[in-house]
Amino acid sequence: MVYTADRIGLFFMFSVILILTVRALYGSVQEKNELIQEIHHRVRNNLQVISGLVEMHSGSGKENLQIILSDFQNRILAISEVHNYLYKSENYFEIDFVEVMDKIILNLSHRLGKRSIKIETEAESTFLRIENAIPCAMIFNELLSNSLKHAFRSEKGTVQISFRKKGDKYYLQVSDNGSGIKDFKIWSKPKTAGFTLIQILTKQIKGRFQISSEGGFTTVLEFNSI
C-alpha cells in the first residue's frame, strides 16, 4: 500500500511538473511571438520613415544622388546590424548595444573613407531591449555619420563616443572637436534628412535630445529603459 501511495504521489508530482513546464514553454513561445510582432511593427514603421525621407529627396539633382543613396544604404545597414545580432544570439529580447555600435563604427569609417579620423569609444557591455535598439542604432548612425562627414575641414580630428546606463536611464553621447555649428535651429526646425530622422526616432522612444557647440559639436540622447 505504501509502495502504491508512493507511486501515486510521484505520478502527481511529475504531472504537476509537466503541466508547469508546458505552461512555461507556452508562455515563452507566446512572449517570443509578441516580440517578433513588435520587431516587425518597429521595422515597418522605420522603413516607412525612410521611405518618406526618400520621397523628400526625390526632387534632388543628379549630382547629389550618389550621396543620398549612400546615406540611405548606411541607414538600412544600421537596422540590419541589430537583426544580425539577434540571429546569432540566443537572447531574443535584448542586445548588447555596444557590439552593434562597433559594427556601425566600422561600417561608416570604411564606407565614408574616414579611417584617418580618430574614434574613441567609452562604453561597457550594456543591453538594450529590442524595442529601443533599432531606433537607437539608427540615431547613432546619423550622429556618427554627421561628425565624420561634416565636422572636420581636414582629414584629421577626433570623435568621442560614450554609451552608459545610469539608474533607469540610458545616455548616448557623440562629440567631435570639429568646426561646430552656428545654427542651433537644426533640432527644433530640422532641414536635413538626418536630423529629421533623429527627431522622429527620439520621439518614438520618448527620449530627450540635447546639442551643444563648445570646442566642436556634442549631442546627447537620453531615454528611459523599457
TrEMBL record:
InterPro entries: HATPase_C_sf, HATPase_dom, His_kinase_dom, Sig_transdc_His_kin_sub2_dim/P
Pfam families, per database record: HATPase_c, HisKA_2
Domain Histidine kinase: residue ranges: 38-226
UniProtKB keywords: ATP-binding, Kinase, Nucleotide-binding, Phosphoprotein, Transferase
Catalysed reaction equations from the record: ATP + protein L-histidine = ADP + protein N-phospho-L-histidine
PANTHER family per record: ETHYLENE RESPONSE SENSOR PROTEIN, TWO-COMPONENT SYSTEM SENSOR PROTEIN
Name listed for the protein in its UniProt record: histidine kinase
Source species taxonomy: Bacteria, Pseudomonadati, Spirochaetota, Spirochaetia, Leptospirales
